[in-house]
Structures are given as structure tokens and as C-alpha cells.
Specification:
Blueprint lengths: L6 H9 L4 E5 L10 E5 L1 E2 L6 E6 L3 H9 L1 E8 L5 E13 L4 H11 L2 H10 L3 H4 E6 L3 E6 L1 H18 L1
Antiparallel strand pairs: 1-2, 1-5, 3-4, 4-7, 5-6, 6-7, 6-8
Keywords: Oxidoreductase
Pfam family, one: Pyridox_ox_2
Protein name: Pyridoxamine 5'-phosphate oxidase
Length: 162
């Protein structure tokens, strides 16, 4: 059973507004796993992933040092789906472009909330930077076909029980 998404499906899934889980190597101690944190991100099909963070954060330091990161997004509703991408950092915009910041806010908040959020956090324009990543490796799964198989089995079992 094929669970992988088509290129168009995976890119559209990634383009939809979801909270992403960013993962980056953390070599501060030899026995640490990667840093794994939820993030707002931007993506347009065929483009780069855009992530905003504070210039002096551990996340920014690790992203600069590693030069690459992974991002995983999922849909927890049944049937479950996810897209995971990994690739190199292609650019660091320092400071963040106010238009990019506004686009991210509007992506995750309704327009009134986004305006209030941007006004309340305007000082972040001085402290935030943007990392851009070109997706190089993709992992995807869409369990819809798998779940449909269970539904068929259940329907056949129920029909036989009558």
C-alpha cells in the first residue's frame, strides 16, 4: 500500500497553515539529541521554507552552526498525514523583513489578531531574523488509503453479521 503523497499534494500540504516542528543538530554536549521546537513557518509550493526567530536564541545559534534543519508538519485528524522536509539553510535575513513577519502573522492569525499581535510585538523587528531553507529531502505519509481499507473490512464484516 502506497502511503507517500504526490509532489503536488505534499507541497500543498506544507503550504497550508500548520504549526511545524523544527529540528536542528545540537552539539553542545555529546549526549544531546537535536533541538526540537514548534514554529510558525512560511512556504509556497516550489519555494523555500521561511522561519523567524530571535537573533540571539539557541535556535538561531544552532541553525547557523548546522547550516541545515528539518521541519515536520502533521494533521492529527484521521486519517493522519504528515510531511517532513530537510535541507540546507540558503539565506539568513538580518534583520527580518517586516513584510515577511506580517505574512507569517496573517498566516496563523485572523486579520484583527494579526494586527494586534504585530503591534504588541513590534520590538521583535529589531531582534528577529529569518532563516530560509530549500527542501532537499522529503518524507510523507497520507493514511487515507490505509484507513479506507479498514473501513472496507469493517463494512464487509458488518454486512456478514446481519
Amino acid at each position: 500500500m502506497l502511503l507517500a503523497m504526490s509532489r503536488d499534494d505534499r507541497e500543498q500540504f506544507l503550504a497550508d497553515p500548520r504549526v511545524g516542528i523544527l529540528s536542528v543538530t545540537d552539539p553542545r554536549n555529546g549526549d544531546r539529541g537535536p533541538l526540537v521546537v514548534p514554529v510558525w513557518y512560511g512556504y509556497e509550493p516550489g519555494g523555500e521554507i521561511v522561519v523567524e526567530t530571535g537573533r540571539e536564541t539557541i535556535k538561531a545559534q544552532l541553525l547557523r552552526a548546522a547550516g541545515r534543519f528539518s521541519l515536520c508538519v502533521q494533521d492529527e485528524r484521521r486519517p493522519y498525514r504528515y510531511v517532513s522536509v530537510e535541507g540546507p539553510v540558503t539565506a539568513v535575513d538580518d534583520p527580518i523583513d517586516p513584510a515577511v513577519r506580517a505574512t507569517l502573522a496573517v498566516r496563523y492569525l485572523d486579520p484583527d489578531e494579526a494586527g494586534a499581535y504585530l503591534a504588541a510585538t513590534a520590538d521583535q523587528l529589531e531582534h528577529d531574523i529569518t532563516f530560509r531553507m530549500r527542501p532537499q529531502r522529503w518524507r510523507t505519509a497520507d493514511f487515507a488509503a490505509f484507513a479506507a481499507g479498514f473501513a472496507e473490512v469493517g463494512a464487509h464484516r458488518d454486512a456478514g453479521a446481519v
